[in-house]
Amino acid sequence: MASIEKRKSKRTGKIAYRVRVRIQGHPTQYATFDRLTDAKQWANQNDADLKAGRHLPTVESKRHTLADLIERYENTVLLHKKDPRNQQRQLKWWRERYGKRLLSDITPALITEARDTLREGERSDSTVNRYMAALSHPFTVASKEWQWIETNPVLRVSKLKEPRGRVRYLSDDERNRLLAACKVSKNPDLLLSVILALSTGARKAEIWGSKWEQVDFARELIVLHETKNQERRVLPIKGRALELLRDRSKVRSLETDLIFPSKKDPKRPMDLRAPWELALNQAQIEDFRWHDLRHSAASYLAMSGATPGEIAAVLGHKTLQMVKRYAHLSEAHTASVVEKMNKLFISGNA
């Protein structure tokens, strides 16, 4: 029996129709379409195929190419992601090289070969793994929801070993030079966004896409409803960040609820890459990316005596593994704690 659910994208407002076909003794079939007519047609056809025993993943994998899979994934799944540009670029690479191959021919051996080809260029092992992940999710959807394939072949290929996460943070002098450059920037949003990143450790997308409805001035915090980990997170806003945010709220745009709206389209977040790069050049800061503002915030927390658990809570990490890279920065604090413990409990009894 088929059922159709109407869905609306929070980001774009676009309507989509998700179909579920259930027949006893068969795996449930899922698919998403832009038009209700297409959804009904697919539901009726799959209902008939399942009842007749014609819908088998082994057959479907010989009917569709990798290009078919990527196209359907982009039109039904990727369309609803908040920022799909990186995955679109990565999927383009797969489509250009292997798009004409049938899904039945996309084997772990072929993906291993592609992984090694990616590695031969100037891409890092971490970047190669991102290309693998970009292809893995479409295959997972094709296996679980579309029944085009039985298993995801990407999961049978080993990931490359990635180097330890880099820790690049602003020194006191660099921070002062950068903030001075941001302060004189022609873009009025740059200083506030950089200070928010430094004081909260929030990700670029979380800051650039933040809205006034998320800000609670009474409690001095910003509530993030959509994060990388798909979990709600609260960012305390203190000091200079709070002052600047209060000032900005007095001259906020009435066309949008975004804190940093684009001048071309107020309904979309502003892209601050150009003024950011200019500020870095003016401040003469090298080898520094926007994401390193997040590393800077974590490093400052560690040097201020925050525990790994506290740093993880602020940054929104589910485990402590990601914050171990900052452990060496808290050595001075750890030493003082041990010294205090020795004075109180050990020295007098020796």
CATH topology-level fold name of the largest domain? hpI Integrase, Chain A
| N-to-C SSE string, H for helix and E for strand | EEEHHHHHHHHHEEEHHHHH
Rg for CA atoms: 25 Å
Going by CATH, what is the homologous superfamily of the largest domain? Intergrase catalytic core
User: In what order do the strands lie side by side in the largest sheet?
Assistant: 1-2-3
Give the count of helical stretches.
14
Oligomer: single chain
Contiguous uncertain segments of 5+ residues? none
- In round numbers, the mean pLDDT is 84
- Classified by CATH, the class of the largest domain is Mainly Alpha
Secondary-structure class: mainly alpha
Helix content: 40-55%
Report how far apart the termini are. 79 Å
Query: How would a crystallographer describe the biggest sheet?
Result: 3 strands, antiparallel
Number of strands: 6
Shape designation: globular
Task: State which percent range the strand residues make up.
Answer: 5-15%
CATH architecture of the largest domain: Orthogonal Bundle
Number of domains: 2
Architecture overview:
The chain has helices spanning 36-52, 57-60, 66-76, 85-98, 108-120, 125-144, 172-183, 190-200, 204-208, 239-249, 273-282, 291-303, 308-315, 331-345; strands at 2-8, 15-21, 29-33, 215-216, 221-224, 233-236. The chain is mainly alpha-helical and 350 residues long. The protein has two domains: 2-156, Tyrosine recombinase, N-terminal domain (DNA polymerase, domain 1, Orthogonal Bundle); 172-338, hpI Integrase, Chain A. Strands 1-2-3 form a three-stranded antiparallel beta sheet, covered by helices on one side. Strands 4-5-6 form a three-stranded antiparallel beta sheet, with no helix packed on it. Strand 4 and strand 5 form a beta hairpin. The longest helix has 20 residues, at 125-144.
